[in-house]
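Q: Two folds, back to back.
A: First:
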Amino acid sequence: MSPRSTTPVACRISREEYDCIEAVNWSTLKYAVQSGLCYQHHLTNPPEDTDAMKLGRATHTAVFEPDRLLHEYVMWSGGRRAGGEWEAFKAMHAGRTILKPEEYDTAIAIRDAVHSHKAAKKLLTAKGQAECTLRWVDKQTGLACKARLDWLTSRALVDLKTTRNIEARAFGRHAGEMLYHCQFAFARMGLEASGKKPKVHIIAVENEAPHDVAVYTLTDDDLWAGEDQVRQALDRVAECRRTKRYPGRYPEALALELPGWLFPKDENEFDLADLGLVPAKAGMG
């Protein structure tokens, strides 16, 4: 059953304001797919801001809001980040994110690659809103929820993902491992609360030159599979909050599952390869 809300809100607010909203978001909810214990740990131990995270934000700004790049980011080319010159530079640019020259160049190169791609350009030139904040209440659990959307139009929800390889099968495996289908199912569940059901697209761009680009569209089956996992995660969080208990993945004892190849064959079993019906494994006599 999909969540429903009577008061969805979509608006443009700063990242700092968004972070202050007390609501469930996907960046922490995804850990509840594993267990309540994993969810609680990541909720109470947020990750430190890294250079990779700063570059990711700069890349998103360059792609979706290029006019804001120079206002929010500045490049430091003075070498080692220490000493009086560095401290003076930080003070002069307080409130802006400082990038290394190679990081700034990468953000610009990815921007140019994305905007030069036919399918990506079509999505980004449609009238829309960048960094859109969505808020809703999951009616089934009563949990307040929030999401921050890269790009939202009247017909499409678009998200940018940098990756090592955009090849279809490789990126599909990566997307499944990263639970991208769940991330977008969660966001679209919020959009559905206001009667919207946009198509969901991923702009995938390789993080190394020449920054090849692909646009992938998630099917209804993809999002259905994601919503099933999201629903389980939301129910788990609601139950943990109700009981004030955050159990691990396996709170009860269970049988060990060893791989089948460890077990000797029964004397009555035979190998099809012995009959020449299937090829023998390499290295086996």
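A: Second:
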Amino acid sequence: MQRLTEAGVIDAETGARILAFETGQERRATLRWPVILAMVFGGILLAAGVTLFVAAHWIELSPAVRFLLLILMVSLFHVGGALLVSGFPALSTTLHALGTATLGAAIFLTAQIYNLHENWATGVLLWAIGAAIGYILLRDWPQAALLAVLAPAWLISQWSITMKWHDGGDRPLAAGLVLTALCYLSARVADEESTVRRTLVWLGAVALLPCVGIAVVTAMEEGVRYIDRSSLPTGTLLLGWAVALIAPLLQAVGMRGRGAWVNLLWAAWAYALTLAAAQTSRFADAQYRHPFGATLALYFLCALGSVGLVTWGVHEKRRERVNLGIAGFAISVLFFYFDGFMGKIGRSASLLILGVLCLAGGYALEITRRRLMSRMEMTQ
């Protein structure tokens, strides 16, 4: 304040008011991360302790006592969170998160106690409904994270049961995984900086590359036909594709508004990626080697998606998308080298080329990433 006042940026009266305001504020920034770490590890340890205690005495309890214990376990966490909401918000959020997490255990253990032979995906649905109610009432990020994980988990579980004795349903599942991760990754737009949106971005960033890998492997398995399985009915297959493509797009529209047109392009990319992966496996020759044309198309789409992710990140000034795009491009190049060239040349030459590729390619990608980051900072 003294330097700003002496430089004439603000007058002395304004500086005095700013100092008086800041002096009266409660200083909590230095305790933020220790408190968060304490809440996270404390919550994990508490959940582990409750689990071990219940498991040690589970056989000795009657079904009625077991059911009552499950109800108490869920309700006590939420009651404790409600009582501490004004006195200790961080602990309140932790207890509510534990209550919603233990709801899943209560649902499945209740089915075990009373030998309920229902569709197990329904248990995941009930858990997701509990997380949705928790988010509607609390509006905090742990409930949003649980709902963001459980809702797709229910759809995946239900679809897996539907296609259990059928072939042809792998591609919708693969495309839906990728589009859901991209939808979460694109949650932050412009000035939308809420904790819930940041949580969704973290989930999408962590899940995107693994989901792409799972999608490619899952779609490739569609080329393997089982004799004892029939093809999935056309109506069911169309319903699966509709849910896999439309559900993430609707969620993107809700979070991004008109900016969701980019997610529509990603839907087309995900469909093409799963199609290329399925064709790569379907047209494999007798020596179990994939034809070079199909493999090239698959890796081209992976590289195209990486470049598109970088471009998207630069356009919307989102660093996490740029970093993921760079990482995805590097992984695509490495897999293409291992799959297409490493087995066709000598061992020493292949290792030498791989070393040069890693060093030179890593240097080039890092320089490119830094330049893109600098350009983003200059345009902000």
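Q: And?
A: The two ends are 26 Å apart (CA to CA).
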